[in-house]
Design brief:
Arc Repressor Mutant, subunit A; 10 helices; 15 strands; DNA-binding transcription factor activity; DeoR family transcriptional regulator; repressor; transcription regulation; transcription
Amino acid sequence: MSQTFRLDDLMRIAREEGRIVAEEAAARMGVTVQTIRRDLLKLSDAGKLTRVHGGAVLPSGTANIGYDDRRSLHSDEKANIAAACAAAIPDNAAIFMNIGTTTEAVARALLGHSKLLVVTNNINVANILVANPDCEIVLAGGLLRRTDGGLVGTLANRIVEQFKFDLAVIGCSAIDDDGDLLDFDIMEVGVSQTAIARSRKTFLVADHSKFSRTAPARIASLADINTFFTDRSLTPELSASCKRWNTEIAVSRTEKPAG
């Protein structure tokens, strides 16, 4: 395989998985680890990746990747996370759901629920739940962010403040090593923080790729979460912290086809 094709494949792996492990990439591509390390160095020099021990990650930044791209990444994992989250949500519940492709997956998993009240600042979530005739939908009006259908800003905050939720279902863009939940837009963060403060319980839905990313704005901590629905086990250190915080971890693994 030529270096040009390898570099393209490495960037695809980085975007889909959030991290490149040099030994695993070498095995996939049938080349030596040293070859992959040289490739990663070239991508790092070009500013496309950041080198870390054993491989590379996407560089830290202040801008998220495109919403359509995010929707297509880890779709099976998101569906499993959403199914587990929806199974923990009772009928007759008042719920807040924020902006994100995983919360959209939760909305699809709630189409069979009855007597729900869902408040959301995510137009996509509202459009999905329209198909559930037994779900009352309230859009938290605000400044429309055309890139992802999000409604953000002071007006959205004020609407969310009018409710007391049984549950907030929250997504995030990144999770730091110390358990902080991070996002890219401070106005979006404000709406999520308001919803958490107005909820009896908070569920976090996020796949494993969020652990290898970073973002500048803090939403909350895993200490503020009742149940974290994800698809891979946390590090021993973060697992110990969650146990100390009484944050339940629910891991839903994607089944691989036989053969």
